[in-house]
Specification:
It is built from seven helices and 13 strands. The chain has 255 residues and is of the alpha/beta class. The mean pLDDT is 92. Residues 22-67 form the Ribosomal RNA small subunit methyltransferase E PUA-like domain.
Length: 255
């Protein structure tokens, strides 16, 4: 069943009706070719997901009658923010897509010393962010997320490190770290229950430079190894996020 996201004000509980607008209207009618009577899933992006039956499709909106609702159960209690130094080409598209599928709540594109991609102005940066936002929304639909992760506007490395204190744990995947792994870092804390908000730091092609690594280490960002093999920037984030989710009980079932 296809999933869509709406804002809470598009759900009218008195009329038992949901209104879908904007690009999803065309997607429902022209791409998916859904009709009156077809059922869809609709998330309010906050608390509930609804099963609804399409009752009317027109040029500007799709109306659906609520059949049932339940609490969102697909979201992790772990709040991961990915601080990703922007790689070249379309690699960032892949990164935001996979981060969304794995359960990340927030994505912060950063411009570090070795970032090749440069924005000519704020409008250029916003255009890129909007592209990533669309990819994230589609990935959230496909993976049955309860929310659509937030994609922030690109910021400088210097601004990004001011955010470190927002997290219970900050992790840096570093190719020159050979001994300390994720398991050892987690064991340093009083228990996984104390780790809720996590910042994950991934460098661009070539990694962060030595000065940036030093700055991160000085503000107590934990540097860890991802194993004996060197991972690409578009692989490192997904690998670390997967390991984190598993270590903290979000992947792998209950037994």
């Amino acid at each position: 069943m296809n999933r869509f996201f709406v804002s809470p004000n598009q759900i009218n509980r008195d009329k038992n009706e949901i209104t879908i607008v904007d690009e999803d209207v065309k997607h429902i009618s022209k791409v998916l070719r859904l009709y009156n009577g077809d059922e869809i899933e609709v998330s309010d992006g906050m608390e509930y997901v609804y099963i609804a039956e399409i009752s009317d499709i027109n040029k500007n909106e799709v109306l659906a009658t609520i059949i049932s609702s339940e609490k969102i159960t697909t979201e992790s209690n772990i709040n991961i923010t990915l601080f990703q130094s922007i790689p070249k080409s379309t690699k960032m598209d892949y990164i935001v897509q996979k981060a969304t599928e794995l359960g990340v709540k927030n994505i912060v594109p950063i411009i570090s010393e070795r970032t090749i991609v440069q924005f000519s102005n704020d409008k250029d940066a916003e255009k890129k962010r909007e592209r990533w936002e669309k990819i994230v929304q589609e990935a959230a639909k496909q993976s049955k997320r309860g929310i659509v992760p937030n994609v922030e506007e690109p910021i400088t490395f210097k601004k990004s490190i001011q955010r470190v204190n927002d997290y219970d744990l900050n992790l840096l995947a570093y190719e020159k770290e050979s001994n300390i792994g994720l398991k050892k870092v987690i064991e340093k804390y009083s228990g996984v229950e104390s780790i809720v908000n996590i910042g994950v730091w991934i460098g661009p092609e070539g990694g962060f430079d030595d000065k940036e690594i030093s700055l991160l280490e000085n503000i107590k960002v934990e540097t860890i190894t991802l194993g004996p093999r060197i991972l690409r920037t578009e692989t490192a984030g997904a690998a670390l996020i997967s390991a984190l989710m598993y270590s903290l009980g979000d992947l792998g079932g209950t037994e």
